[in-house]
Records
---
Amino acid sequence: MADAWLARYRAQLEASDLGQWADALCDAALPSIRLVIDGQIDATAAGVSRLGGSPDLPPDAPWPAEDDGTPLSFIAQLDMRQMAAHDVQGILPRAGLLSFFYAAASQRAWGFNPADHGAWAVIHIADVAAVRPREAPGEVRAEGRFSAARLSPEAELTFLPRESFAIEGGARRHAA
């Protein structure tokens, strides 16, 4: 699928008189999955991709928490079977749920410092049959709770930021 996207992209570049840069631009293009909000969701539906709401967790799974025990906010979960159709590189799990949690109320971590490791969690739950919607613990503040919305995946090409070392290397490679 990525080859078909790149072929269409290359054809668009050629048609726009940008063919001389087609190799460099195609080298910089990467397949990705865009998550699109697709409306409201039944909050009791287990195992579906969603932004906000309540996560689906196994009954015995602990709620993710910061190092000090403060519960993290639930951000999103992805149904990996749904994502697999758009994962042209085959790098994501093919089944299960991928759930994301973050210290949203405090927003103390941005991810640049290794000391931020306790401010977020990503959990892969392989056995979706065992999950049930779970309400956030009472300690999760109101500003760390989000309304549920359904997420749908769409395949697309993305590009490295201009300050990327890969772009700089590619630009030098194609300038010669």
Note: Residues 2-15 form the longest helix (14 residues).
---
Amino acid sequence: MALQTNPPTAPQAELSFPVTGMTCASCVRRIEKALSKVDGVQEASVNLATEKVTVVFDPSVASAQHMQAAVEKAGYGVRDLAQQKADYTVGDLPQTAPSSNTAATDSPALAEDPQDLERQREIDDLQRKWTVR
């Protein structure tokens, strides 16, 4: 009788980075599809509201530059990827990622993220322009 063993799993890394130029659910799908075509990418998830992409990938096959090129080829921009790629983690990832909402309330430094501040300024500016006095 043959003993079945699980095949060795490739190391996984997770990378999140901001994407610019998204306006609708079709944009989300285009970016996810473009990233899924990159060799080594196992999962790509785009959040339209936060304008961020989270990618689970094999770092020995795919790189941040490959993912950036795929997003840009699809017609969207990538912001601050050079800084973000140093933050990804390699190893066994949990099946469910912890909620980012809990991290934001635990650390005041996350509330002062330059990208979040820039986005809030943009929202405030648009709100001022549309406010009828």
Note: Confidence is low (pLDDT under 50) at residues 92-110.
---
Amino acid sequence: MLMTSRFRIVRAGAAALVLVTLIGAPRRAGANGARPLGMGGAFIAIADDENAMYNNVAGLSQIDRSLTQVSVQVNERENFHRDSATFVSKFFTSTDKERVTLEEYLESDYTFKSEVQEVANYTWGVSFLSEKRSLELNRLSGFNSATDDKKRTYQLAFSTRFPVLEKLTRRPELYAGIRGRYSDINREIPALMVKAGQDVYDLDFHLFYRANSRLNVGFAANSLISGSTDDVVGARDFSASYDLGFSYTYGERRDTIIAADFTNMFNASRSKDPRIRLGVERQFLDNDFAVRIGANDGLLTLGFGLRFWEDFRLDYAFVNGRVLDEHQVSARFNF
């Protein structure tokens, strides 16, 4: 009887420990998709495709068509996986006359015609992300209480653009986005037969600014509003994290992108430690083929992309992890 009571006390204490560490777990979506992963996760100031759902949703307003992506990790799935499905599309468009400078008019021998082009004023996106970290992986990573972790994240985002400095830059260059996240987190200590679950809600605000034709700046304020289904004594408070990114397009054909991100700059306790992400992408054959290299807080990343036809693209990324390597494959469909 005494042994049974002690076992119950141990289990109760273990359950409280699991729940506290669960609530203290990082909750940022972070880099996802083979293209950003191949560039070390440096994508906040690029954000020109469906991968913006995980880095900077303000950049979604750059897209001009609907995009669907499925991304899967293809190795070590029994210990770790990160899979996602993403859809983004514009839901309201307007038309805008192309503005012509005097220099362009003279170079065209006075025959340049003003064209009307579609402008994506409002864009939306949805995504689903499934992540798993096994007991063995957490043990190898040095967790004091090795656990088996599973997390599912659902995201809904909207973005728009504002006509800031339009007369000076010839077109609107400031974009803003808002993202809502719901995460279902489950953590287990198999040896003690203890499980704990948590539902987390987050609201994020993002900005994207095209300073000129080559330089972009991105800003992400994540978990500005956050809440959880659990309230445990000793758990750390929810706090917002702030990320800043820069990208520069290089070359006469503008076929090289250099990017740098600085994440969690003020070291919010409820997010991952501050990191520096660096990445380079070089495009060939009008972006039918691209190669990428990057560093995520010192971890080497590599990748490439192939466009087989206009509406289908395949991307691959390799991440040289501290405990295990990661091979990610993403397939994108345009329509």
Note: The chain has one domain: 2-334.
